[in-house]
Write a structure and sequence with these properties.
- The protein is mainly β.
- It is 5% helix and 41% strand.
- It has one helix and eleven strands.
- A five-stranded antiparallel β-sheet has the order 5-10-9-8-7, with no helix packed on it. The chain has a three-stranded antiparallel β-sheet with strand order 1-2-6, with no helix packed on it. Strands 4-3-11 form a three-stranded mixed β-sheet, with no helix packed on it.
- A hairpin with a 6-residue loop joins β9 and β10.
- It is globular, with a radius of gyration of 13 Å.
């Protein structure tokens, strides 16, 4: 399926192809627990993921070992996606940013990122 998404202000937009979104993923690491976003369960490879950014709005946050790249919009502050540490070049998306997806209606699995390192 083809999907589109964006941050709240629209300065960071993305599109991708993937399986139908029927479940989400939550992580209990320190940043994910604080942001509370439901992420895509499937990893999206970079060749199926297109990012469009206006005026340098995409910003990067890393912490700890700096293996995961957490991206957010510097204009509205919304976490849009991150690049996986376990599979560089693959992304998990904030399902709240994906058009036509209601993250509150999806079943969620929990990933134990808190004890990964």
């Amino acid at each position: 399926m083809k999907y589109q998404g964006s941050c709240h202000c629209g300065a960071v937009r993305f599109s991708f192809e993937g399986e139908a979104i029927t479940k989400g993923l939550r992580c209990n690491c320190s940043i994910c627990a604080r942001k509370g976003a439901l992420m895509s369960k499937e990893l999206i490879p970079s060749d199926k993921f297109k990012i469009e950014v206006e005026g340098g709005a995409l910003s990067l946050y890393q912490f700890g070992a700096k293996t995961v790249k957490h991206y957010f919009c510097r204009s509205c502050g919304i976490y849009t996606f991150h690049e996986s540490a376990s599979r560089p070049g693959h992304y998990r998306l904030n399902l709240g940013c994906v058009e036509g997806v209601d993250p509150l209606s999806l079943e969620a699995e929990v990933f134990d990122g808190k004890h990964l390192l």
